[in-house]
Structures are given as structure tokens and as C-alpha cells.
Amino acid sequence: MEDAQRRWQQDRDRMHDTLRRQKREMAEDEQWLEKEERLLDPMGPEEAAGSGSPDAEVEHAPPEKPPRHSAQSVGMTLRDLIHSVDELMPTIHESVRTEIEGTQKLLNNDMAELISKMRLAQQNAITSLKEECKKQMLAAAHTLAIDGKNMLDAVDQARVRANLAKPKPEDP
């Protein structure tokens, strides 16, 4: 009998330790996510910060869905970017052209990955996987942004080599 009580107490203590660890990890994940969101959104958070405790607001808020218009906006911008690069391609040296074409394919794959992660986040908006899905979506968005910048850098370098770069006009 005492042995059963001791094992029950040990299991109970282990469960409490696990819960404390998970709460701590969840708080760390929240901090990381907030930091990543701030890095990805130069305009700052959309909602006003401050009033009430954040936990109380989250508990009573409806399930969050990633904004669909943001993905569409990113997709449209990416499409316009790739189209403008396509217009430059005939003027760019062949050796650089293959690099840029590869970067374009990478960007298309990055966008597909972002859409996939966004759908996953929407499907898990009310599950315990919500935060993990958000992190994955942010990571995919970050990868897309970095690869987009790399393509722009490659295009800029190609334009400079082809003497197509125009200096920015100075303000009078």
C-alpha cells in the first residue's frame, strides 16, 4: 500500500515538473515568436499594446487565423518582382542569367512553402499546435524574404556589370 502511494506521489511530482517545464518553454516560445514577428513586421504590431493582461486577452479572443490578404499580397508582389526581372533577363549576361533563374525557382518554392505553412496554421488555429505552426510560418516567411533579397542583390550586380544601373537622382 505504501509502495503504491509512493509511486503515485512520484508520478504526480513528475507530472507537476513536466507541467512547469512546459509552461516555461511555452513562455520562451512566446517571447521568441513576438521577437520574430517584430523583425518581420517593420510597421509594428497592428493592435494597441497595453491594456489588460495578455493572457486574459488570449484566453477570450477568437482563434487567430493568419491574414489571407497578407499571403495574397506577398504572392502578388513576388509575381510582379519576378515579372520585372524577366524583362531584364535578355540584357543580362548568360552566366548571371542562370543564377537569377535558379533564384526565381527558389522563390517560387519558398512561396509554396509559405502557403503550405499558412494553411497548416489555419487548420491548427485552435489546437495545441497553434504556436508551433506560427513559428513555422514565420520561418517560411523569413526564408522567402532572405531569398528575395538575394535575388535582388544578384539582379543589381548583373545590372551594374551590364552598365544598366542608373544612379539615383540627387535631390535639388
**Overall helicity:** over 70%
Number of strands: 0
The profile of the biggest β sheet is: none
Give the integer mean of the pLDDT values.
Answer: 77
Indicate the low-confidence ranges by residue numbers: 42-66
- End-to-end distance, in Å? 91 Å
**What is the 3D form?**
elongated
What percentage of the residues does DSSP assign to strands (E)?
Answer: under 5%
Topology order in helix (H) and strand (E) letters: HHHHH
Radius of gyration: 24 Å
Number of helices: 5
- Would you tell me the structural class of the helices and strands? mainly alpha
Could you walk me through the main structural features you see in this protein, from its secondary elements to its overall organization?
This protein is mainly α. It is built from five helices and no strands. It has helices spanning 2-40, 54-60, 68-88, 94-123, 130-161. α1 (2-40) runs parallel beside α5, α3 (68-88) packs antiparallel against α4 and α4 (94-123) runs antiparallel to α5 (130-161).
